[in-house]
Structures are given as C-alpha cells and as structure tokens.
C-alpha cells in the first residue's frame, strides 16, 4: 500500500481540487454518539436509522459534477479510469474519509490497468457488412490500422489447439466457433497460425460481447459474430465455395496507472475483518451514477455514519478501480494479499448497482457447495432482512460479473446485493417489485444517460440500510459465522469455484 502514487496523480490534475467544493462537513452527521466521552457500540438499528435517501442523492449530485470533469477530454461526463472524472471521484472519497479524522486508516494501492479503445471497426464478408460483428474488448488493431482482406477459413473443433488451424489460415481470416477455451486463447492461436484477423461466432443466438482478456503479442484483431450471420458463411465454406472478407479495426491497447482506495477502522479486532466494496470507476460512455456511483456512495455514507460508533471487529471498505476493464482492481488487491492477510478477511460483500430505475432486489445466489463456506450464511443474512421487512427479492447468478470474483477464487466467502443491469424484468418480477416488465432493470446501463435521473432513491435507501445492517452485524460479532478455511490458493477459473463462471466483469471471456 502506498499513498504517494495517488496523491501525486491527484496533484497533477490541475483543476480537480479547485473544481470541487465539498462544503463544510455536516456537523450533525459528524457528531459522535458519545457515552461518557466514548463512542457507543454500533448496532444494526442505529446505523440503519442514520441512512437516508436524501443524503445519498445529495452525494450523487456531487458525483455528477465530478463526472463533468471528464468532459474536456471525452466530450461527455465520465469517470472512466485515467479520466479527471475518475481522479475527482477518488479525491471525493478520500476527502470524505479524511474528514472523519483518525477513525479510519486510509490507504491507496496503485496498479497498472490495461485499457482498450476501439475507434473504428468493420467486418465485411462477401461484400456485405456483417451487422452483428462486434470487436472484442482489448482487441489489437488490424495491421497498420488499415483494412486487411483474405479468405474466410473455417477452423476445426473449437480452435483451442494449434492443430485446429489449417495451413491456409496464414494471411487469411480465421472463423472460429465459441466454446471450450477463452477468446484470448483463440485469438492467440489464430495469430500464431498467421491469420490477419479472427472472427469468433456464437454457439447460441445473438452476437458475442467478449473480451480477449490479458493482452498477448500473439493476439490478432478479433470480432464476435452472431450464430445467425455465421451460419450462412459456414454453409458456403462447407460446400467448398470460397468466401472473402475484409476486417478493419482501428484500436489501441494501453496501460493506465490507477488506484484502489481502502479504509479500515482503527478500532476493532484486526484479525477479524468484515470487508465490503464497490467500484469507483465508470465506463467511458457515461457518468456511471447508478453503475457504480450508487454502490460507491452507499459505502461512503455508511463509512461516514459508522464513524460515530465503536466496533468490535475491524471494518474495511474498498473502492475498486478498473472494474469496467475486467475487475482489475479487486483482482490485483486479492492477489497481493499474503496468506495471513487473506485469512483476516472473514467475509467480502460486493455492492455494484444498488439503485437501478426499474429495479429488483437481487441477492447473489452464493452457496457453500459452490463457493467458499460462509457465502451462503451471508446470502441468508440478506434474505432474512428483506423478508423481515416484507420486501420481495430474487436470487441472481453468482457468476463472476463483479468484484467478488477474486475473493471467491482465493477462498474468501463472499456475496452481495444488486438491483440489475441489462437484464430484462419479467412479468412476475413486475408484479413483485412494480416497474416495467420487458424492459431492462437499468435502461441506461453503460450509457450516457446513467445520470442523476437514473437512480431510484427508494431502492437505493432500502439497499443502503441493508448494507448498514450487514456492516453493523459483523462489526459486532462473527458468532455463528463459519471460521475461515485455509484454502487461499488462487483458483484460475477451471477449478472449484470457476466451473460456472463465464464472465469476468461485464463481458464474456469464453
Ligand atoms: N459488474 C457489472 C458492471 O459493472 C454489473 C453487473 C453486476 C451485472 C452483477 C450483472 C450482475 O457493469
Ligand atoms: Zn458497469
Ligand atoms: Zn458496475
């Protein structure tokens, strides 16, 4: 953990500090509930009572102003890593916590994040524009950032083995079926075989929103393609016809230094920590007020309110960076823990998107069979809370789409709640939660319109009270919660916890 990286980065951004006026800390919310000069022990009720939607929304307004710092460079409000909007977000979180005096020990962790930008792309097959073609995240450009042409060559099997690639792939465009191994592996195999581009077609309906993952010099420009569009091409190739294609990708893959922020209570048993996190970054396309302004600000507000109380166990808050680039910050953090530090984390709770406008109350369906022991107890804690309030909830897959992934792969029990991204609300859910069936939970997911009008403050307040409940619960005691196991060896996704994991962040990788 080092701070100079972040502070130097913040200092280097002319105007970030000046553009932000946080105002004086609210004296009422800062006043400790002291008993005889000492803070009283936190309770779920007291901490929940301190949470209000109004305060959360006031923070969202500040965050939107911060996102505007990204406008100069990106022509739109954004808090994407590397932008002034993101640095402003880090500064905002840092100063909100620093205002609480020495209640928390603050640290930042700098790490290099690989970022891809596709400026322009096109795939033309047999003189027709492939409508479903989508460049994969972290794709390299085509050679000289110019169009490349060649025959489409069908790769055998799933293209996971170099022997699947016929010799005449060289200088041509490899067409590979999705499945078995990662898109990155296929792109690398195509590159090693001399292909000038690769197209990975879906084995189910629709296109593939994929990522190549960790860049490799073997990768070639790679597109995802729908099964529907691939079918016709494959039929022609199987009949022995030749099909030509032109691929064009103008893109860059670069490394950006960015920062996780961590705040840990000075009080409480440091051998037994409850940890929780949200992500401080947004996508480049918008300000990310719901994704994940909502989760990040819930954490800031809970951290601020918790500072009025004493805790028995340590509470550790994290704001991850580069979640949108593939969970990079949380992965980096967990991988950097020594086995002793790993075991100090009794449980990790993920809060990504708590205020979706067309929300459902979603609980990650984490179980002790498929995930580190304790994950299920955490799931049930959320369930009991909703049930006690007569609120409906649904289970959603715990399949690697957010920052809990690194934790479960390293043996740390985890879970969390959310309100939904690009999923479609069902009739049954509309009957339970209200809202509009047939529409996305968050119609502005990863878009410019994820702004102040894109949060449901009622859902946000409810969920932040649940965050407060979980924090207070574990801050007081881990009684009845399973001891940590010693299993801290990283799981690469092929093993114990990985079998059901198809995602790493918001994009498919296999
Ligand atoms: N992690 C996703 C994002 O930030 C959001 C998400 C979380 C989607 C959980 C589905 C389930 O874009
Ligand atoms: Zn996102
Ligand atoms: Zn998110």
UniProtKB/TrEMBL annotation:
This is Peptide hydrolase. Residues 260-470 form the Peptidase M28 domain. Its cofactor is Zn(2+). Residues 1-19 form the signal peptide. Belongs to the peptidase M28 family. M28A subfamily. Its EC number is 3.4.-.-. InterPro entries: M28_fam, M28_SGAP-like, PA_dom_sf, PA_domain, Peptidase_M28. Keywords: Aminopeptidase, Hydrolase, Metal-binding, Protease, Signal, Zinc.
């Amino acid at each position: 953990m080092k701070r100079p990286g972040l502070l130097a980065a913040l200092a280097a951004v002319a105007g970030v500090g000046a553009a932000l006026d946080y105002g004086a800390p609210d004296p009422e919310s800062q006043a400790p509930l002291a008993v005889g000069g000492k803070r009283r022990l936190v309770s779920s009720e007291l901490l929940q009572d301190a949470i209000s939607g109004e305060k959360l929304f006031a923070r969202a307004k500040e965050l939107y102003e911060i996102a505007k710092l990204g406008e100069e460079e990106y022509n739109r409000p954004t808090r994407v890593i590397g932008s002034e909007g993101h640095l402003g977000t880090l500064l905002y979180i840092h100063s909100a916590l620093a205002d609480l005096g020495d209640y928390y020990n603050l640290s930042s962790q700098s790490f290099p994040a690989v970022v891809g930008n596709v400026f322009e792309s096109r795939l033309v097959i047999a003189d027709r524009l492939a409508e479903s073609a989508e460049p994969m995240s972290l794709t390299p450009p085509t050679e000289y950032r110019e169009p490349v042409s060649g025959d489409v060559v069908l790769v055998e099997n799933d293209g996971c083995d170099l022997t699947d690639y016929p010799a005449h792939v060289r200088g041509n465009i490899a067409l590979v079926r999705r499945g078995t191994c990662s898109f990155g592996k296929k792109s690398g195999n195509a590159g090693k075989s001399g292909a000038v581009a690769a197209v990975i077609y879906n084995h189910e309906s629709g296109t593939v929103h994929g990522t190549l993952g960790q860049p490799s010099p073997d990768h070639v420009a790679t597109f995802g393609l729908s099964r529907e569009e691939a079918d016709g091409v494959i039929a022609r190739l199987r009949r022995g016809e030749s099909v030509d294609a032109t691929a064009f990708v103008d893109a860059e893959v670069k490394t950006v230094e960015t920062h996780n922020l961590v705040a840990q209570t000075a009080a409480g048993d440091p051998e037994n920590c409850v940890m929780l996190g949200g992500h401080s970054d947004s996508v480049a396309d918008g300000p990310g007020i719901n994704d994940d302004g909502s989760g990040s600000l819930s954490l800031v507000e809970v951290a601020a309110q918790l500072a009025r109380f004493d805790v028995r166990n340590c509470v550790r808050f994290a704001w991850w960076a580069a979640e949108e680039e593939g969970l990079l910050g949380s992965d980096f953090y967990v991988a950097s823990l020594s086995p002793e530090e790993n075991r100090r984390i009794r449980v990790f709770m993920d809060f990504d998107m708590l205020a979706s406008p067309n929300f459902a109350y979603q609980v990650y369906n984490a179980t002790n069979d498929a995930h580190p022991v304790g994950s299920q107890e955490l799931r049930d804690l959320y369930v009991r809370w909703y049930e006690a309030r007569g609120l409906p909830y649904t289970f959603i897959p715990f399949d690697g789409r957010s920052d809990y992934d690194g934790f479960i792969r390293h043996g740390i029990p985890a879970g969390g709640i959310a309100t939904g991204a690009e999923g479609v609300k069902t009739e049954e859910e509309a009957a339970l939660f209200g809202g509009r069936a047939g529409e996305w939970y968050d119609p502005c997911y990863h878009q410019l319109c994820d702004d102040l009008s894109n949060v449901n403050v009622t859902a946000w307040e409810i969920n932040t009270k649940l965050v407060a409940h979980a924090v207070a619960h574990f801050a007081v005691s881990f009684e009845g919660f399973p001891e940590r196991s010693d299993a801290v060896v990283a799981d690469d996704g092929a093993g114990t916890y990985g079998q059901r994991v198809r995602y790493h962040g918001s994009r498919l990788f296999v």
